[in-house]
Amino acid sequence: MGIQYKHLTESDRLSIDSMLLLGHSQRFVAQALGVSPSTISREVRRANVMDSWRYFAVFGQRVRVARRKSAGHQRRKLGNDVRSACWKHVLAGLRRGWSPQQIAGRLKAMHCAANEPSLSMGYVCHETIYCAIYAQPRGALRTELVKLLRKSHSGRLPRARGHRRFTGLQNMTSIDLRPPEVAARIVPGHWEGDLIKGARNASAVGTIVERTSRYVMLVKLDGGNAGTVLEGFTRRLRSVPASLRKTLTYDQGTEMALHDTLAKRLHMDIFFCDPHSPWQRGTNENANGLIREYLPKGSNLNQVSRQQLSCIEYALNSRPRKILGFRTPAEVFAELKLNNIAGVALQN
User: Fold this and answer.
1) Residue 3: what pLDDT?
2) 7-26: average pLDDT
3) What pairing do the DSSP bridges indicate for beta strands 269-272 and 247-250?
4) DSSP at 157
5) Cβ contacts of 332 within 8 Å, gap of 6 or more
6) 99: pLDDT strictly greater than 90
7) Between 282 and 150, residue with greater pLDDT
8) Per DSSP, what are the bridge partners of residue 63?
9) Beta bridge partners of 74
10) Which of 67, 83, 157, 211 has its CA 20 to 30 A from that of 132?
11) CATH code for 10-75?
12) Which is nearest to 270 in space by CA: 279, 282, 257?
C-alpha cells in the first residue's frame, strides 16, 4: 500500500531529535516513524536554527503550533479590516441591495475580465462573505453589516443539505409496538433492513436479513434516496413468499421516507428503531459486518454489479453458522419455504 500520509506529533519530533543525535540518517528516521523521507527533510529544515546542523524538537513543535494557528488567517481573503480593497467592493454591493451570491459572482466576472487593476486581490465566494460578516465582533459595525443583508438574521442559519430539510419520518410505528414473537424468533418471516454506504456516502447497497434463518439479501441501488430504496426493496422482497414477509424493522434513516408505500406494496408491517439504537437491529448489524469483508468502507458501491452482489449473497448464505447448529442460512431458509408451501397446501 505504500507509506500513508500523516502529521508528525510532538512525540515523533522527540524521536527525530534523539535518532538524529545518535547519528542515524533521515531515511532511517523516516522508516522508523513510517513516514516519507521528504517529511523528515522538511521538518528538519523548518526547525533549523541559525543554519545550525542540529535539529531541536522543541523548535519544530513551536513552528508547527505557530503555523497551525495562523493557517486559517492566511487562507482567509476577507478579514476584519473593512477598509481593504475586497471589502470595499463587498460593501458597495451590499449597499446596492445585492446578495452575497450576486456580489461574489460579479467579483469573479470582473476578476476574469481583461486588465481589471482594481481587483488584483482576487475574488471571494458568497460563503466567505457570509462568514466574514458573522465573524465580526458584536457591535455597531456587525449590526450594520447584518442589516445590509436581504434577510437580516441575528445569527447564521444552518445550510440546507439537498432540496429540502428533513423534518423526520412521518407515520412511524415504533419498535415498542412490534409483536413479541419477532423478538423471540419463534415465527419466520420477520426481516431487518439497512443501507451500507460507500465512499463519501455517494453510493449505497441495501441489506435485508431474515431474523430466524439469518438469510441475507443484497439490494443493488442507483442511489440512497427514498425512491430508489422503495423500488429496490420492493423488487427483492417480492421474490419471497408473501407468508414469509410479515414485518420489517429499520432505523429512522431518510431513505425510508416512503415506508407507507413500501408497506402497502409488500403487505408488511414496518417498525422503526429508537434513534441511535443499532442494537435493536442486531441481526442486520452483524450481517453488515460480514458484508463489509467483501465491500469495505471507502469503496465505490456504484461499481459493484448485481452479479457480484449475488456472489456475496451466496457466500454468506452458504456459510455454516454456529447459532443455526452449523447449518447454513440457505438451508434453513429453504426449509422455511418448504414448510410454508406445505402449510398453504393444508389450508387449501
Assistant:
1) 47
2) 86
3) parallel
4) P
5) 212, 213, 214, 215, 324
6) no
7) 282
8) none
9) none
10) 67
11) 1.10.10
12) 257
Residue 131: predicted pLDDT: 81
* Average of per-residue pLDDT values in the chain: 83
Position 317 pLDDT exceeds 70: yes
Please check whether residue 105 is in contact with residue 90, taking contact to mean a CB–CB distance below 8 angstroms: no
**CB of 244 closer than 8 Å to CB of 204:** no
How does 140-177 read in b/e, with b if 16+ C-beta sit within 10 Å? eeeeebbebeeeeeeeeeeeeeeeeeeeebeebeebee
For the chain, give every domain's residue range.
Answer: 10-75, 85-148, 175-347
Which three three-digit cell numbers place residue 40?
A: 523528515
Helix (H, G, I), strand (E, B) or coil at 184: helix
Q: What would you report as the CA-atom Rg of the chain, rounded to the nearest whole angstrom?
A: 30
- For residue 145, pLDDT over 80 is answered with yes
- pLDDT score for 340: 77
Listed in sequence order, the residues at least 6 apart from 291 whose beta carbon sits closer than 8 Å to its beta carbon are 196, 205, 207, 216, 218, 312, 316
- The residues near 230 (Cβ < 8 Å, ≥ 6 apart) are 258, 261, 262
Residue 116 corresponds to which cell in the numbers above? Answer: 481589471
Handedness of CA 249, 252, 257, 260 (dihedral sign): positive
What pLDDT is stored for residue 118 in this prediction? 47
| Domain 175-347 grouped into CATH 3.30.420.10 | yes
Global model pTM greater than 0.85: no
Q: What is residue 315's predicted lDDT score, i.e. its pLDDT?
A: 94
Name every residue whose Cβ is closer than 8 Å to that of residue 80 and which is 6 or more positions away in sequence. Answer: 135, 136, 137
278's grid cell: 443499532
From the list 312, 329, 298, the residue with the least C-alpha distance to 203 is 298
